[in-house]
């Protein structure tokens, strides 16, 4: 039962773009984790760039830096 949370800089995404993101993530997770379509949930969370360090980087990235599948190439 994968649940994906994607934090991203706040931007306008069309309905078509949201659908492409959803379909791409679900397809990838189904393929790589062998899970059914209905098991995947996705939460897109737009964050204002000025709030990134406080809401995402410090509380979510820094404590898990060693465990991240992919680390960012920026630091605050």
From TrEMBL:
Cross-referenced SUPFAM superfamilies: Tautomerase/MIF
Matching InterPro entries: Tautomerase/MIF_sf
Name of protein: 4-oxalocrotonate tautomerase
Protein source organism: Vogesella alkaliphila
